[in-house]
Amino acid sequence: TERSYVMIKPDGVQRGLVGEIISRFERKGFTIKGLKLFSCPAALAEEHYKDLSSKPFYPKLVKYITSGPVVCLALEGPGVVASARKLIGVTNPLQAEPGTIRGDLGIETGRNVIHGSDSPENGEREIALWFKEGELCEWEPTLTPWLRE
Ligand code: GTP
Ligand code: MG
Asked: What ipTM goes with this model?
């Protein structure tokens, strides 16, 4: 099944939004396969956002992501990548729809609370990047037949 890497950024952790954000994904029906609080080294933030390395905001972005602990999530479910992006909302929280995480909880692109993978390929790449062997849990919720036909 498809997997997405979702990460509550340091502002989300500092603002006490961890429980509220994780709840939204749980209630939607996705399965948490990995979950940890983590202080991200600069090298990892640089690797994660390497496609943006030529952007003027890149140094600020790396500083932001390494400014405090993040919460790393590996989520699984059918269509989880696109669905998580919908639940998260567009990059700029002022433009994000009310009802989305960014739309409800943020006001600036540079403090947009959460990350979500933009393709299933990147979901796998990012989960491999942020989680070590043995940190993911292989389990199937007993609830699955009530969520999936
Ligand atoms: P992620 O889920 O974090 O990857 O966000 P995204 O896919 O909605 O946006 P994108 O991948 O284009 O950019 C990654 C992150 O860089 C954004 O979430 C922002 O935190 C940051 N970012 C993007 N554009 C800007 C910008 O113009 N200014 C600043 N300060 N940060 C930006
Ligand atoms: Mg992105």
From this structure: 0.96
Contacts of 43 (CB under 8 A, 6+ apart): none
pTM of the entire predicted model: 0.97
- Cα 27 to ligand 1 centroid, rounded to whole Å: 26
pLDDT in tens, 99-108: 999 999 999 9
Query: CA 105, 108, 109 angle in degrees (round to 5)?
Result: 110
Ligand 1 pocket test, candidate residues 109, 113, 119, 129, most atoms within 8 A of CB: 109
- The closest alpha carbon to 24, from 12, 14, 36, belongs to 12
Catalytic site includes residue 115: yes
